[in-house]
Amino acid sequence: PIVFLNDVGVEQSLFYNSWLLADPVTVLGISASGVTAHTPPNAIATSAEIQALNGTPAITSIYPGSKVKAFDFRSFWFGCSAPTGQGAVSAAKQCSVLVAGFRGGKEVASGAFTFTPTVEEELADPMIEAVLDGGFVGLQNVTLVQVDTVTEVLLVDSVSTVIYT
Asked: Whole-angstrom Cα distance, residue 12 to residue 163?
């Protein structure tokens, strides 16, 4: 499984809403989270439970004290996992993520990405990279929404942005 640590909060001048720092549990040195972070050991994560408390998972430049005027959203690595029902072990699960970019409160870019594990039910499948198209520029807010309600946890790592202050 995954141990949720703290809210991500502000990271590299952007606020991460509904994201927690995730520390994957290891069994005999192998990740038992179902998905291996692109830059181990940690990733950030969201789930239905987290979203019920904090709303839609988003990365935003709009928060008190922000000096960021806009940002470009270039890429991120991701994967999904769900409990196996076998104790403290989760497995990689196929999932789709819808990404939307907003400027001035209006959606200006969107994309969809699907994580397909190398082997379904794998205990430590690697994340895949999602590269956004050129429309994800000059943004104030980005949302990442899971389409798959079966998937318990969306894990994200190595978010690439360009910040404009």
From this structure: 9
